[in-house]
Amino acid sequence: MTLQLHETVFSGDTPGTSTNLYWYTAGPEDAQTKVHLQAALHADEQPGTMALHHLLPMLAEADMVGQLKARFVIFPSVNPLGLANRSLRHHIGRYDIETGVNYNRRWPDLYPLIADTIAGKLGSNPQANIATIRAAVGARIASQTPGSAAQQLRLFVLQSAHDADIVLDLHCDDDSLMHIFTSPELMPGLQDLADWMGAAATLTAEDSGGGSF
Ligand SMILES: [Zn+2]
Questions:
Q1: Of 16, 98, 123, 199, which has the highest C-beta tally within 10 A?
Q2: What are the boundaries of each domain within the chain?
Q3: How far, in Å, CA of 43 to CA of 85, rounded?
């Protein structure tokens, strides 16, 4: 396989408008592991986009010589709606200007939505459990009917991420050392990533609040 560019079009909220989302895939389609990478969900936080911009040719090169062991799905600029939020020479990339909702808040907590579906179906085989849970989440996402462009985008990104083994959502701050937010159950594995990246801090929380991605 080689690095591939994909284009997904979302219909706009007013007649005659639409939004194009560009994303890439690399690595074997039948790989056991899936990696979902995205940047600029807060569309004015673009260092992550630059990081993925520089990562893409490295992935392409590794893919060409068959070195990739995982399937990569990469969204260098995952929020084209926010990227276009420009008013009076200001870029408002953090909020949906129609609703005021922070683009990285109010993502659904998926477990309560599928708890009844998977009740009694989990057993002692962890891989089978993962497959059962992902199938239920995927079906739940697929059953939704998005209305607005923002809802279409959210569902599409969720659908991509829900069955990934590794999800990295790249953000930045005005002034900070590099740091990672993750959940306690992913430690200490994520500390390896933090160390490789030279991160100054690793912050863990089961739920950091607000329904972030
Ligand atoms: Zn952010």
A1: 199
A2: 4-104+147-172, 177-213
A3: 9
Beta bridge partners of 86: 91
Q: What is the mean pLDDT of residues 141-159?
A: 96
- Residue 116 alpha carbon to ligand 1 centre in Å: 33
Q: Are 74 and 37 in contact (CB under 8 A)?
A: yes
Residue 1: per-residue pLDDT: 62
pLDDT at residue 113 greater than cutoff 70: yes
Residue 41 · residue 78 · CB < 8 Å: yes
Ligand 1 centroid to Cα of residue 212, in Å, is 10
What type of residue is 61? E
The pTM score is 0.95
Dist. CA 29 → ligand 1 center (Å):
30
d(CA 12, CA 84): 12
Q: Which residues pair with 26 in a beta bridge?
A: 72
- Residue 120's contacts (CB-CB under 8 Å, 6 or more residues apart) are none
Q: What is the DSSP letter of 185?
A: G
Q: How far is the CA of 15 from the centre of ligand 1 (A)?
A: 30
Residue 207's pLDDT band (boundaries 50, 70, 90)?
Answer: confident
**From the candidate CATH numbers 3.40.630.10, 2.60.120.20, 2.30.290.10, 1.20.1070.10, the one assigned to the domain spanning 4-104+147-172:** 3.40.630.10
pLDDT in tens, 19-54: 999 999 999 999 999 999 999 999 999 999 999 999
Angstrom distances, CA of residue 208 to CA of 157, 163, 211: 20, 21, 8
